[in-house]
Amino acid sequence: MGRVAWCGFLAALLSGGGLAGVAQTPAPAQSMVSEPKSVEPNEPTEAASDADNAIDPASLLPDLPSLPPANATLIGGTIQKLDRIRDEITVQAFGGGKEKIFFDPRSRIFLGTQLGSAADLHLGDRVYVDTILDGSMVFAKNIRLRNAVVAGESQGTITSYRADKGELLLRDAISPHPMKVVLTAQTRILQGGRATTGGQLVPGTLVNVKFGSQQDGDDVAREISVLAVPGMNFTFAGRVTGLDLRLGLLVITSSIDNKTYEISFDPILIPPDGNLHESAEVTVLTRFDGSHYVARSMTVQAPSRQ
User: Looking at domain 151-228, which of 3.40.50.410, 2.40.50.320, 3.40.190.10, 3.40.50.1010 is its CATH number?
Assistant: First the structure.
């Protein structure tokens, strides 16, 4: 065999492909199949570690504050504008005017008697909204769609009353536009808890109205309570919870009914007492002028000496 042929034979032999009779040794099984990694009993797995480190995005959001306690005012109309980014709707009220109303997850939305969601709100929908004043914005506590029969309550001053048509226009603290309320033969009119007549429903009279809504959009009064008629005198006694000497505004929490009343006073006609401050106990004789309780005299209780 020549030198060149011998070298070719050795190369083929070393590469394993030169001789058919030479068997190739298979690789050990453990080199082809990896063995599972043993886990100590107290050693957490990688998946468990990832689960423990996972953060719920909802937990990063701050809790919404609770709504202020306040009587809700019912606004009925159709949705003219809907902004899902800012969570606000503009309602074209049945009685005229427009109202921008905000909502958030605290607002409850009803489809008839079933609980719905913000996705059920659409332009042109007929809605009844229970609203409160949350700071400076009008906020929706409840939004009812599809002609649900609802009831509401509102407090404000009468701007006009048409006895022949049974129509009462009322301006409350929330809406800048008067709301129309219809009186029927079943409407109860009370003053001081006793029945009275529609003759007390004069412009400037402060009333509390409880009403329901018919499906044609009219707000029908079930009960009207006359709280104050222009020219009437009222005496308030309680604790001062707000005081603005520059504006001449006194806020009293009554010791009788625990309600809060705003009383206007003229610092020139009623010079503030040295003991007048927040938390002081006062007695104020007022006259209702159709929009405000105006102080005529004021007595400040002297602080007790220990």
Answer: 2.40.50.320
